[in-house]
Amino acid sequence: xxxxxxxxxxxxxxxxxxxIAGLLGLMTIITFANVVARFAFNSNILWALExxxxxxxxxxxxxxxxxxxxxxxxxxDAILNMLSPGPRKVLALIAVGCCLLFSLLLLKGAxxxxxxxxxxxxxxxxxxxxxxxxxxxxxxxxxxxxxxxxGALRFLEDLINYGDAYEKLPKVVPYIVLPLSMLLLVFRFVxxxxxxxxxxxxxxxxxxxxEDELEAVRHQQGEHx
Length: 225
Known about the structure:
225 residues; mainly alpha
């Protein structure tokens, strides 16, 4: 077993992959069950579509940070390949710095959007937080349209909704993926910058998918010859 699959880092890798795979599997099961209910029993799972949309959002947002970690995002490295190692490292750090700045802006926006549903104050400041806006109106009573409330989350009624009962799932639950995924994205870009500084990689993303596929085809042809 490789080192990447052992120890704490291996556990985190497996956990992330399991969560992403679980979200995809759950989407498939819910969609299949709704199709069966509709065409076999002339019925409908009312909350299936909305829950599938939420799961897809979780899949995309969490998958984005994981793709940064494994360098799976697409990139153009035509200029990088023409440079010597020194300038290549500088250019890679500039690129990851721009991505880190952008992810920090996304994190602020994501937190501010989610905070009002969690009865928390959003940050003040247009671009970067300058404090907290204590005058912001709480929207913790907002519910989703179809997904029913889950019994295990009833504690939220006293925690953020001042004792009022939820009939549907409060928006604070599915929307928590917004700040969570953006925080993970920031963390992954910091990790990538550290890898570049340590000389473990010379670029932020890999863009050799075509070359890898051609090499795989050549290898298969060589085995058949």
